[in-house]
From TrEMBL:
Gene3D superfamilies: Metalloenzyme, LuxS/M16 peptidase-like (3.30.830.10). Residues 497-535 are annotated as: Disordered. Residues 90-236 form the Peptidase M16 N-terminal domain. The lineage of its organism: Bacteria, Pseudomonadati, Pseudomonadota, Gammaproteobacteria, Moraxellales. This is Insulinase family protein. Belongs to the peptidase M16 family. It comes from Alkanindiges hydrocarboniclasticus.
């Protein structure tokens, strides 16, 4: 562990020296290289190698050889410590000692939903500028320091949060904390950095959206799916917004939202909570808290019925987009409703045995691909979305009819006990695998905390899912997955006069009577709402 006194100053001094100091001799460089290699292995779930377990010990035992000793399975035990400083900074530390690395993430509760229509893109633009230096760490020094000491750093912006992360060998966690605390209060926002960075962001907008017909169409789709919620706003902003953004607006945004009482600091890895909290208090404890604005309500507040959009774009493959306005765990009057929606999503699209894959792709051959998504942990309301590509010779209308037929069967056809057990197991397994890495653990904690949900929800999730019955899930499908809640977009090719297949004709679904609506918000795999920097 480095000496606590003048940590960052020592780091910069070392970098400025033409020769490495004696304390940083070859052996330590070899150790640092080994740490980085072990982290790469752990990212690919080769935990046994990173823990020094030989391949022979991880192999399956040979029943014919009774002398083979079967090693006990590797168990990952995590402990989580939580504390809120007097200035309002919430700190969550999770121990994970599988590899000698640690990740620090700081999440600010601000995103594109907090922006006004004429200044869209502020949160994302400020995220970029957070890498342009402070009075202590000028210019691009933050990224250089990170690379010099075996780390990596980046950031991400979404509708509801902005986050920054640093990954280091565990001994450099104090360095990460000092760098993060420094730019929370001492950021230098200069015009000479702002103008070229805005050109970078405009190019990012062009590459990700304007020059991507599907992404541009999906941006329009979100405006239709969220008729009254600010979740419709693109995180990066429109080109017109970017051209009009001013540096003074970023300065005001920084002063409004970047304060310890609006942030959650998450540290996951090979750390000791007691020692780590000492460093957290040292670097963040003296920061003053400031009042923050009241955040926007991101729930749909006006029901306008079924919506459809027909878009022709220069793509080779047509696509279909469906979205129902539904509740999330945060907005549902009964949390079981959100849990039921999560399981219904897995019934439709939870692996090779799910209904979409087995029925519409393999049996009926109506769809070439299909994906169903629901954001259980969204801040505000959510969307239950389905995106699909029809098989050659199948029209978008036929694909929609087939999909809606399967959705209707959720309300009438019983889910068998075996199917329900498979869905619950699959959902929980996916959640567990997503937390295999320290980055995955930190990300899930940050998402929950930024949505004003506790990370402790994960501990009770198996019990919540197990108590759901089939009749209750059918009731939830009848409440939410109705035409009166539905938005549809047909994404057509310029020559999309496709002749429908003569075989396997799809029967139309009878129109339902209007039903009570819920609310709205989620992302789609075609176009993520997250925008990240790459300093």
């Amino acid at each position: 562990m480095l000496d606590d006194t003048g940590l960052l100053e020592n780091m910069i001094t070392r970098m400025q020296q033409p020769l490495l100091p004696f304390s940083f001799h070859l052996k330590q460089f070899q150790q640092l290289w080994t740490i980085r290699q072990l982290f790469r292995l752990s990212q690919y779930s080769l935990i046994g190698l990173s823990l020094g377990v030989p391949l022979s010990a991880m192999a399956k035992p040979n029943p014919a050889n009774s002398s083979v000793i079967t090693p006990a399975p590797i168990q990952v035990k995590t402990k989580t410590y939580e504390e809120t400083l007097p200035n309002g900074l919430k700190v969550i530390i999770r121990e994970d000692h599988r590899a000698p690395v640690a990740m620090t993430q700081i999440w600010y509760k601000v995103g594109s939903t907090d922006e006004t229509g004429d200044e869209l893109g502020l949160s994302h633009a400020l995220e970029h500028m957070m890498f342009k230096g402070t009075s202590k760490v000028p210019g691009e020094e933050l990224s250089r320091i990170s690379g010099k000491f075996g780390g990596s750093t980046n950031a991400f912006t979404s509708s509801n949060y902005t986050g920054y992360y640093q990954l280091y060998p565990a001994q450099y966690v104090p360095l990460a904390l000092e760098l993060e605390a420094d730019r929370m209060q001492n950021l230098q926002l200069r015009q000479q950095d702002f103008e070229p960075e805005m050109r970078v962001i405009m190019e990012e907008r062009r590459q990700r959206t304007d020059d991507n017909p599907k992404a541009l169409a999906y941006e329009k789709f979100r405006w239709m799916a969220y008729p009254t919620s600010p979740l419709r706003q693109p995180t990066i902003g429109h080109m017109k917004n970017l051209e009009g953004l001013k540096l003074d607006s970023l300065k005001r945004w920084y002063q409004k939202w970047y304060t310890p009482n609006n942030a959650t600091l998450i540290i996951v890895g090979d750390v000791d909570p007691k020692k780590t909290m000492y460093d957290v208090r040292r670097y963040f404890g003296d920061m003053p808290r400031r009042p923050t604005p009241v955040r926007s309500d991101v729930s749909e507040f006006q029901h306008i019925g079924e919506r459809q959009m027909d878009v022709t774009v220069p793509v080779q493959i047509p696509a279909l987009y469906l979205a129902w306005n539904v509740d999330s765990l945060q907005t549902a009057d009964n949390p079981d409703k959100a849990y039921a929606l999560a399981l219904l999503q897995s019934v439709l699209d939870g692996g090779l045995s799910a209904r979409f894959e087995s029925r519409l792709i393999r049996e009926q051959r109506i769809l070439a691909s299909v994906s169903c998504n629901y954001d259980l942990f969204s801040r505000g309301s959510s969307l239950f979305t389905i995106t699909a590509i029809p098989e050659q010779g199948v029209t978008l209308e036929q694909a929609r009819t087939a999909i809606l037929a399967e959705v209707e069967k959720l309300k009438t056809d019983p889910i068998t006990p075996a199917e329900l057990e498979r869905v619950k197991t699959s959902y929980l397994a996916e959640l567990v695998y997503s937390q295999d890495s320290i980055a995955g653990q930190a990300q899930l904690i940050g998402i929950l905390e930024s949505a004003d949900l506790s990370y402790k929800i994960i501990d009770t999730l198996p019990q919540k899912l197990n108590q759901l019955s089939v009749p209750y899930m059918q009731q939830i499908a009848q409440q939410y997955l109705v035409r009166d809640n539905l938005s549809t977009m047909y994404l057509r090719t310029p020559d999309s006069k496709t002749v429908a297949k003569a075989q396997n004709p799809v029967q139309p679904i009878p129109q339902q009577a209007p039903s009570a609506t819920a609310s709205a918000t989620t992302t789609d795999p075609v176009s993520s709402t997250n925008a990240g920097s790459n300093p």
